[in-house]
Amino acid sequence: MLNTSHEKQIIHFLHIGKTGGSAIRSVLENNSETTQYTIKTHGHATAIKNIPKGEKIIFFLRDPISRFISGFYSRKRKGQPRYNIEWRPLEKEIFSTFETPNELALSLNDSNSTHHSLALESMDYIQHLRHYNNWYGDFNYFNSRLEDIFFIGFQESLDKDFKQLKEKLLLDEKLDLPRDDIGAHRNPIGLDKHLDEDAKEALVKHYKNDIKFYNMCKNLALKN
């Protein structure tokens, strides 16, 4: 919080998984002090409610269905190559049962499927598949914190948004995002990202409020 004319404004970067956050965070961690701002970066567990009112917030989002696919494969490969976090017992069951995101989503859609309960449990158990409201709370609370939102970016326009963020933060314009798979924590090419229509339908239903939040933030970003 900015208390005197001599103190810098504190800005927090919230890291929502599979939104391009690893790349952004790596740059901000190495450039945490600017002429006007002190930037604090956080892990996946930090939500808007954890940030004091009056201190500014940056976060990035991604289309919820695209994020679901990316999150599924990220955890399936145990976070490699950037990390190597072993599966917990339930995750071992999940990835032994569902080979692709499509298979999980189809079971999510079919209440008669023998794997329907496991599919439902997967959506909350795997961090990268969880709802965005884990970070923003609810719509009323988010709206009450709008004055604290410094910048919202999107994975789909990561380079363009990062350029805008650098300008707002008064960072060196020559700074660039990591381009390697490890630095960017990027999925490898060649993964099966196909979704059947029933799978898409299930995900649109499951992520209804996430899609609403994503679109709302798109509109907010356009206004700024």
Automatic annotation (TrEMBL):
User: One GO molecular-function annotation for this sequence?
Assistant: sulfotransferase activity
User: Which UniProt key words apply to this protein?
Assistant: Transferase
Q: Which domain of life is it from?
A: Bacteria
Write down the Gene3D superfamilies for this protein, in alphabetical order.
Answer: P-loop containing nucleotide triphosphate hydrolases
User: What InterPro entries would the database entry show?
Assistant: P-loop_NTPase, Sulfotransferase
Q: Which GO terms describe its cellular component?
A: membrane
Q: What is this protein called?
A: Stf0 sulphotransferase
